[in-house]
């Protein structure tokens, strides 16, 4: 049986910061984002992609459609986190040469 994924952040207390990151990243992608409720951006992404995501139960939603919504959000967040880490590393090390 597959293990159910938790929707909680691994680091306690980081949810707010991750929400702000999600909001900023998706805003930069051109989506209409409510900075007070970044969790709602998934509905904006779903709407633009034609995925019938609605608040509440979405048992009728296929895995493919769920991935169409979650993929761009998670992917954009990971790319931004990698970019931020690379920037931090480049500022910490003196250039080699």
From TrEMBL:
Source organism, top-level taxon: Bacteria
Listed InterPro entries: SASP_alpha/beta-type, SASP_sf_alpha/beta
Pfam families: SASP
Name of the protein this chain belongs to: Alpha/beta-type small acid-soluble spore protein
């Amino acid at each position: 049986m597959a293990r159910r994924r938790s929707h909680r952040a691994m680091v306690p207390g980081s949810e707010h910061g991750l929400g702000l990151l999600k909001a900023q990243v998706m805003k930069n992608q051109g989506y209409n984002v409510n900075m007070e409720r970044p969790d709602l951006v998934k509905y904006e992404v779903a709407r633009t992609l034609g995925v019938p995501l609605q608040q509440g139960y979405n048992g009728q939603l296929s895995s493919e459609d769920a991935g169409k919504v979650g993929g761009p959000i998670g992917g954009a967040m990971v790319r931004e986190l990698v970019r931020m880490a690379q920037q931090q590393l480049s500022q910490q090390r003196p250039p080699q040469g």
